[in-house]
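Work Package 3 (structural annotation) set out to generate three-dimensional models for the target panel prioritized at the project kickoff. During this period the team completed the workflow that converts sequence records into discrete structure tokens, so that structures can be stored uniformly alongside our sequence database. As a representative example, we reproduce one entry of 52 residues exactly as it appears in the project archive.
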Amino acid sequence: MSDPKTDAVAQGYEPIPFAKKHRISVEDAKAILAKHGSDRKNADKEGRRVSL
């Protein structure tokens, strides 16, 4: 089974740019990317939800 964190990096999502894109903390970005892995659509949706 693959590691979701590795999948997110392989798909081009890094925590710092993701955090800047959604204006959230890097810790929140890491948690979201770990939870959603390479699922960009749901990761972006969660990022928008957290930024509110």
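The mean pLDDT is 83.
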